[in-house]
Structures are given as structure tokens and as C-alpha cells.
Amino acid sequence: MNNIFYLTKAMFGSDETLSSLGLGGKKKKSIFSKRPVKILLFLLLFLSMGMSTGSFAYMLYDSLSMYGFQSLIVRLTVPASGLTIFMFGIFYVMNVFYFSKDIENYLFLPVRPGEILMSKFLVALVFQYFIYGMLFMPVLLVYGFLDKAGPLFYLYLLIVTLFVPVLPMVVASLIAMLIMRAGRGIKNKDRFNMIAGVLGLTISLGFSFGIQYMAQRMTTGSMVITDLSQLPTIRVISLAFPTSHLASEALVAYDGLSGLMYLLALIAASLLSMAVFYAVGNAIYFKGVMGVLDSSSRRKKLSTGELEKETTSKPILLAYSLKELKLLMRTPAYFMNCVLVSLIFPLFFIIPFLIDGPDTAEIKEIMAFIRSAGDANLLVVMAALGLLLGGLNIISSTSISREGKNFFFMKYVPVPYMTQLYAKILSSFYVEGLAAVILYGLLILLFKPSMVVVLLSIPLFILASIFMNQFSIAIDVYMPKLEWDSEQKAVKQNLNSLFQMFGSFLFGGGMIFLSTKFTPTLIPAFLALFVIFGVLVVITHKFLERLVERRFAEL
């Protein structure tokens, strides 16, 4: 236990993890890099997310309480949190356990593999608490307030918060370890690491959509709800993560003996899962992690023609952007967090429409309503998707941070700063463009907009995406995270991407909201949006020119 404690303390103290939240690190000249400002910004982000989820619970409580079903809020929220943590966890564990460069510092210490693994598990677990706290804790707090729960409920809620993420993270970690153990002996580690990351994410998404499919298939049209614990969704998730069921029942029956028994069972099951994780990790972790950071190269003899082709001069902007794209594609942590997330985002639109279940009729009604909307409204929605897609693509908002200790290269390479920045934005466009093609294909297939709307939306989509990428890279120029010891910390634990996402949701959501309040015609709507986005692009470009000269001189 002493080794685990000191290793965990070292892992938190040696990187920029906590300083991203304003809890460590040196003060810098940027006002947004100072500790009080960081804490304030994080609290504002936490509060904004909490208000959105909490307000949903507030509105839902009155409707459910009329039928005595208010406990459904808890019975759905807690299992949903377990599923969400599992999805984020398997994506996160691959980076922390295997793709982090600090692994080399710990492998040679006189400690057991399980102790290193348990320390990394605790570090990863802390960040799942932030996800749980922002998305699900407000819902449960609102439930307790409206249900007039006593102090014991909040004590149970604190204990539940500590233990609910444990089993989903253990399952995600075991899957990751088995995948990486299978790569022992493979020569091309870079390629396998990439495949392993994609496979891990595929498993998590398949697991999530599989649960939704099973829950819908278990539901019958004549179903009468008499026991909320028998709802298909709750039953399926409870089978996948039993601790979620124990936690929700403990909160519902907090004032009785059964609630205490459920809580004790939750604690026991969580501790048992950690013991299993320690034993398995102690046996297979080293075998999977040894050599995982090694890179391989092919010694290929080039012909004269191939050499001339490889050394052909290219425009600076194109050559620099291709260099950035190759770096994104070849680094597992960058590929998974920056590229893969952008490409799988459109799948979340299509999967619900492919799952046949009792909600199919409602989905068809929603599709019919969207199809019946005016062309101008559809145009605004498609332009807003350019903002949303740009907000989910974190390539621009982490482009300076990814330079890390090699940031000085940007200062001495004979390429203007703005050219370098737009090359990074262009590398983001390569990925975003492919995601846009997928998204447009799905939108045309599902909602069948007119060809005029599609053609008019393309320049608006491009301008919206340019503005969003300019906005994102400006954030990273102003407060880059240059001190990190693993690639995943430059992208996954970078608060700049959160500010980018928040901005895109704010702009995109505001556009859609305004489109519902007005009834513009197609051509005036197109011209207005084209002018607005064009002006925003020019203004942001001018601001970026001034910002980069000042900030790069300070860094």
C-alpha cells in the first residue's frame, strides 16, 4: 500500500494533470494560466454543465412524481453514469496505461507490476470523477432536494460517487490489458498500438449500442410498469455493471435497512473488482507494456525516381500541413483523441435510426418533422453543424500544446507564424472534411433536403468551420499546455478543448434557437449567414495575427 501511495503521489506531482485544473504548476504571464482564474473557469464550466443536466431532472421530477415514479431518475442516472464511464474509460485507459511516456520511468523500479498499474488506475479514476461530477451528480442532487431527502441521502451519495466508477473502469482496464497482451511479439508496435486503440474504442461503442439494442428488444408494446427495477434498460445495464444497480437501490432506499445492505454490497463488490484487477494486472501488465513505446522502421531502398518524388518541393502551407497530418496519424494518442473521435461522431446520428424497437415510431415522427421544416431552417441547422463538428475536432485547439518541449522549432523555422498556424488548421480540415462527407451523406439519406439547400449549405459549413478552427487555435495560442510527459496529456487532459466545445455548442445552439424564433426565407438566410461568418473569419484572423506575435514572444 505504501508503494501504491507514493507512486500515485508521484504520478500526480510529476505531470501537468492537476495544474490543468489550477491545482498545481507554476504561474505564467497569461491571466488564464493563473491558479485562481483556472479554478474560476473550471467552476463556471462545471456550473454550466450542472445547470443543464440539473434543470432536466428538475422538469422531469414533477411529471414522474404524479405517478410515484420519481425514483426512476436515480435508477436511470446511476446506470447511465456507469455506462458513460466505461465508454470514456476504455478510451482513456489505453493512453494512461500504455501510451504514456512516463511508463519507462516506473518499469525499472523495485515494485510489482500491479502496484504501478494500481497507481495509474487511481490517476485515471480521478478524472472519471470529474465526468461523473459534471454530468450526473447535479441530477442526483436535484433529486435529493426535490424529494426532501435527509442528510443520510447525501452521505450515501458521496459514498456512491466514490465507488460507482470503480467497476466500469476495472472492466475497461481488463479489456485494454487483454488487447495489449495480444500484441506481445508484434514487430510494428506503432501500427499495433493504433489498431489496439481502434479496437478498444470499437468494443466500448459496440457494448454501448448493444445494451441499447437489447433493452429495446426486451420491451413489448403491452408492457405495464409495476416494478421500476424491471425496466429493460435498467435490467440490461444492471447485468453489465451490477454495482450500478446496487448504488441506485442504495440511494432510493437510503432511509431503510435495505439501503444500507445495498451500500455495503456496493463497497464489497467494488473492492473485490479492484482485487481481481490487481491480480490480473500483476500477471499480464508487464508482458503487454514491454516495448509498447518502441517504434519500428522499414529499411527500404529507394530508386532514383522514388527519391526524386519524395524530395519534390511543395508549397510551404501544403508541406507543413501534411507534416502535421502524418504526426496525427502516426501517434496513437493523437489519432485516437483527435482523428478517430471526429470520424465516429456522425455514427451517433445513424445508430439510433438503425436500432429497431418500440421507439421506432417516435423516431420516424422526428424525422418527418425535420423534413417538414422550411428550407431556411434546414440551412441554418446544416451551417450550425459546421460549428459543432469544428468544436468536436480538437486538432486546432491542441495544435500548439502538442508541440510540447519542441515548441522552439516554431520560433526558428523560417516560416511565418501565421503560415504555421493555418497549416495546422488545414491539417484539421483534412480530418474534418472527411467527417463532413460522412455527415452530409447521412443527412441526405435520412432527411432528404433539397439539392439547393445542400449546395448553399456547403460554403456556410466551410466558413463556420474556418471560424471555429480560428477560435480554437487562438485559445491554444493564448494558453498552451507545453509541459507534458505523454502525448495523451497534451490532448486528453487539455482544458482548451473543453472551452472550444463549449464555444461551439454556444454558437451552434444559438443559431438553431434563433432559427426557431424567426421564419426567414432561403436566399436572405443564406446571404445573412454568409456575411456574418465572413466577417467573423476576417475579424478573428486579424485578432489572431496580433495575438500570435505577442504570445510567441512571451513563450
UniProtKB/TrEMBL annotation:
It comes from the Bacteria. InterPro entries: ABC_tran_2 (IPR031599). The chain crosses the membrane at residues 39-61, 81-100, 121-146, 152-180, 192-215, 260-280, 333-355, 378-400, 421-447, 453-478, 498-516, 522-544. It holds the Pfam family ABC_tran_2. Keywords: Membrane, Transmembrane, Transmembrane helix. The keyword Transmembrane helix applies. The keyword Signal does not apply. This is ABC-2 type transport system permease protein. It comes from Youngiibacter multivorans. The lineage of its organism: Bacteria, Bacillati, Bacillota, Clostridia, Eubacteriales.
